[in-house]
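## Example record

The block below lists the input lines for one assembly entry, exactly as stored, with component labels intact.
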Amino acid sequence: MIRASGHRDPVVAVTALALWLLLALFVVYPLGMLFARMVVDQGGFNTAAITKILTDRHQIRAFWNSLLLATLVGVLGTAVGFLFAFTAARGRLPRLLLGIVDASVLLPLVSPPFTTAIAIIFSFGPRGLITYELLGMKGVTVYGLTSTFVSEALTYFPIAYLTLRPILAAIDSNIEGMAFSLGASRWRVFRTVTLPLATPGLANAFLLLFAASLADFATPLILAGNQFPVLPTQAYLQITGLFDLRGGAVLSFVLLVPALIVFVLQRYWVSRRFYVTITGKGAGETPFNSISPATRNVLLAVCAAIALVIVYFYALLLYASLVMALGANHTFTLQHYRVIFTEGAKAIRDTLIVAAFAMPLGGLYGVLLGYLVTKKAFIGRRSMELVSMVNYALPGTIVGIAYLIAFNDPPIELTGTALIIIACYVFRYGPTGIRATVALLQQIDKSLEEASQGMGAGSATTFRRITLPLILPAFFAGLGVVFIRSMTAISATIFLVSIGWTLITVKILDNITELSLGPAAAFSVLVVVIVFVVIATIGRLLRLFRAPGNVPMTSLLGG
Amino acid sequence: MMGSNGFRQFVAGAARIGVLLGFALLGAVPARAADVVNAYSIWPENWARPMFDEFEKATGIKVNFVRFSSGEALARVIAEKGNPRVDVLFGGPIETFAAGISEGVFESYKPPAYASLPPRFKHADGQWIAIADDPLVFMTNDKFLKENNLKPPASWNDLLNPAYKNMLQMADARTSGTAVTRIFSVLEVNGRDETKAFDYMKKLRPNVQLYTKSGGGGTLPVGLGQAGGGIFFIVDALDTKAKGYDVTISFPAEGIGTAAEGIALIKGAKNPELAKKLIDWATSPAMQNQFAKYKINFVPANPAVSIEPSLAAVLKGAKIFAIDADYAGANRKRIVDRWVAEVLNP
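Predicted structure tokens for the full assembly:
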């Protein structure tokens, strides 16, 4: 007999308590400290400064701009991510081609966000390789909404891909096959079966992209120009330009509102639907061909075109790392690599140590919390899920400043340690793993677990043999994202690096501002290489440990 | 109770991994050396590092530092006020230091060189002291000039030429001391007539492609030709030239402003004595004589140090004036607000 589990289970209670403590320490406490800093002025309660900044018409414009940008990025990024995921899951691609698609999709994720932005300026600016050298256009304006949103969509669509790929792969194509054999056209099958089944994934992808765009300050900093101010950049400028910590904090707290609204909407929308496609009733050996050959070719062509743009951007980066000075002196040199392995050696070492710790912790945190809030009943379940998303939804700048303020003074003194950076990564990027876990678990039918127990397996065996393998893709998605972010994030950690611990991304930003494009490009190339090596290694390991009968995992991150 | 045993095992495993990682992390924390002074450097690493290496050679004191832009460095110093992490704020425009004074983050200190410095190179109470001077220049892309049959701009009005439409980059006054120095330069050449000065800046606006966040942000675009020209500090402009980009440096006949770079002792510094030694050294000829050796194109602040000949050649004949600190200090916020409202977002 199976009851709703966890109600009085001490393990669940203890785990929930431990997670709450961690969330309190690393999410609630820093924000609370920041909030206090915001409203308390010279010992008294003061909201005049807050009112002033909230009624400023430029800030209001920036607020609407942010929402517009995030919506556009969410829609376009989810669409492109879905396109890639659908092609990968249903396109019957040969292994090699699948590998190439995977690799090109991962590229934007594994390099610092502003790499795409700078490549766009290089290619489409007034003297861009494409606009000026190739097309001979003059007086082109590259700064503004269009370039910002295309750059962000290109940077973040892999998140949608990573979210949607396992979900599409997990949709039993027999269900599609049944609809087809009942006389529905392929388009009708796609519209009435596949798409609705993918809805939780689409919603999750949109949420993740919306939040990522809402929080991104690096891309608008470089591309938005002066005509299209957005809030994260305004908050950053308020803090670092006008030294107005309170103003910056106010603007960031404003951002929290749309982020949470979208989250709640999505939860409500998704939870109304019930999706189970992984059932105990075995899948057939000959999968249904969901797409016609013509459609397949169109899909492949579109994916190839987008992949080509991405590969071109990164080829440009590689080239910049190998010439003396891009645009001025194109003599081949390895000097930039020598610089990063001597002067930059400490940053490389520190980054690797931090990433090595953040990755497993972030992966565990994501799966644990995701599993707990989906499968176990305990008090404050929903609010735990909500709180866990806060650091992800907030702009990195504000998380960084909040950590700096909260952990600089006793009782909890973490400034200057690696731990503060690791904690920031785990609680800021772990939520990707949480979302992936939740989305996957919502697809798994209880009958699978019940069947296992009905066949006489113990609950431990059931968890190990059934549930764990099913959420493994989510675990590895979380692992991958935390590792990648540990190697590439900048907005929060620029405030958390210290004399003892510095990071590659901070060096890259430094080099860009110092006009040393070569070392910046060399560092970026190194980051790309490291991430690919690590991801590939984990993929190998995963294949070794894979038990038979799991959800097919054609590649590590894709699920 | 479905899965609770398995879940228990999973949690136990997770906890074990967490603890193991925690211990490994403790082991990874590097040990601290004895005679070390900690600093935030606003100067880029390739200038700060040789200076600090020379300081260590001269005194045996090691400087542990991280580099930040002026805004980030000050934001951190303010956030860390209650428990300072560094002893010295090194480099960066006096602008930044002035903002820090109102936050109460510095400790007054007057090094031996204090008496010999002209008044504009020191704060009256020794809250900051200048270590270098940095004039503004016009920098233009050679290819752009040639294509448009332009001569290097020799007057502020030359920049109003429609040929520059949408092709200038310069710094944003909200974030950059470079921009503030530029705006006060425009005010000075217009006899502090704000109406005239703002008329000029509004007329210049259509030619500006982008107001960059950092003072040097536009140098690379100008070097690459993404922008035709801009107004920058001389160190950044000469650095662009040294990297191999074909750019020309010129000065307006009406004159252009200059801004000092400073150093300050952090209030509550953990190593105040060592920090003072660094300040003593940085404000003395001992450091400023090294600028030329490392091709750092700052004008020395200490009158006992002579300007390096090639830098002097660039500056020859240029009309450069200091921005009046009292006037700038009293009007900065108002002028920047007006610039944001009337020029940036009209």
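Chain A has one domain: 10-282+291-545. The first strand of chain A starts at residue 40 and ends at 41.
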